[in-house]
Amino acid sequence: MNSAHITSSTDEHPVVITRVADSHWHALEDDRTVGRGEATRRPDGRIFLSIDSWHDLVFDRLAGVMLADLPTPLYTVVDEADLDLTSSWERAGFTTRRREWEYVVPTDPRVTGLDSVRPPSGVTIVAAGAAKLGPLRELDRAIRDEVESTVGWQEMPAEVLPRPHGITMPDLPKYAVAAQADQYVGLARVVMITRLPRIGIIAVRAGQQRGGIARALLAHVLGSLHSAGIDTASAEVNESNAAATALFDGIGARRASSSLELIRR
Is this model's pTM higher than 0.90 or not? Predict the structure, then answer.
């Protein structure tokens, strides 16, 4: 693998940047690892970088070598409150592409105001784990096709990734769905990433949007969590998604933090 010898101003020993694998770089100073870099290619083809280093200078040197080794555009995600890390990536030529809000969502329907919400006429909500696999896969493929033909996967949360052709819905029990006539028209997914359940996705077919289905799905999944004794959940929402931000703001969800997706073109 390639190595680059760079002298640090914080020590007399040189810092050696080595690409130890196709997607990993190490920074060594006097045989000590003082920094690591990683490039991750997501299923949508985009490459995301991460760097962990002891000093700003080591960060800059790692970033410089990684950027020279990789094709653009390149991406990274930072906590907006971490000003030092954001500044480090900005020094490397990255700029903000989008902001994503992290919401803390109450589940009590008396707090959210969703206690009186009912599905639109002709629509029924099928609880998580009770949906039929065939129609659910058809809905999943249809929604993914709509995403790809409109906003694109680059606007979706990292958790909601495209999958290889023909592979859908590996975690059927996590999806509640909205059924209309003989087809499924919307879905909601709740996952337990940490102790706080995360609302991973709420999606409705394009032809059935703006009719109250998403709100009914949200009322159902939050109500189910509340019945299970869970007081709050979390959700990530793209700042530019006006419908989603209005939905969560309207039920008393609190914006707890935000992350920035940065890009170097």
Answer: no
